[in-house]
Amino acid sequence: MRIIILQGMPNRGKTSTLGLVWSVLTINGGISTNRQPLGGDPNDFSDIVIINNQRVAFYTMGDYSNYLANAIHDYANQGCDVLVCALSIDNAKVRANNAINQFNNTRRDKTIESVHLTEQQANDIDAQWILNLV
User: Fold this and answer.
1) How many angstroms separate the CA atoms of 47 and 35, rounded?
2) In angstroms, rounded to a whole number, what is the distance separating the alpha carbons of residues 79 and 108?
3) Distance from C-alpha of 53 to C-alpha of 55, rounded to nearest angstrom
4) How far is CA 26 from CA 49, 50, 73, 107, 123, in A?
5) Residue 35 CB neighbour total at 10 angstroms
6) Which of 41, 68, 70, 74 is the most buried (most CB within 10 A)?
7) Record's superkingdom (predicted)?
């Protein structure tokens, strides 16, 4: 399994960006197998999307190291080809990083809005980067 990680400080748009990626895949023929809400944030979700003979898992609740580590192992056991996940970097996240490092992984620091870049533009940039890797 390959892991694509969008990492950054909390509340910077990681979940919104992964939601964009999920939407693009499902609009373009991907089949959502069981999208479920996660935790207390109504935007956090998990799912496996089947597209182009690949099982692409999503896990957006990157604030909690143990939950993310468990999800990584669960998706690997389910035979997923790719996991796209968020990772908050406000502290060490030791278990999550140990789990991530057991797999081929690619990390991207979340692009953040600026004077010259809106939040939506930043999210679109990161979503396109992820889509290019899936």
Assistant:
1) 4
2) 24
3) 7
4) 7, 9, 24, 23, 18
5) 13
6) 68
7) Bacteria
Inter-axis angle of helices 14-27 and 119-133, nearest 10 = 50
Look-up: residue for tokens 């992984």?
Answer: 105
The pair of structure tokens assigned to 7 is 């990492």
Kindly list the structural domains of the chain, giving each domain's residue range(s) and its CATH number in brackets, ordered by start.
Answer: 2-133 (3.40.50)
pLDDT of residue 36: 95
Q: Can you tell me the distance from the alpha carbon of 74 to that of 92, in angstroms, rounded to the nearest whole number?
A: 22
Tokens matching residue 24: 């693009």
- The whole-number pLDDT of residue 99 equals 97
Tokens of residue 44, six digits: 């956090």
Q: Output Rg (C-alpha) for the chain, integer angstroms.
A: 14
Per-residue pLDDT, 39: 83
What are the phi and psi torsion angles at 73 (to 5°)?
Answer: -65, -35
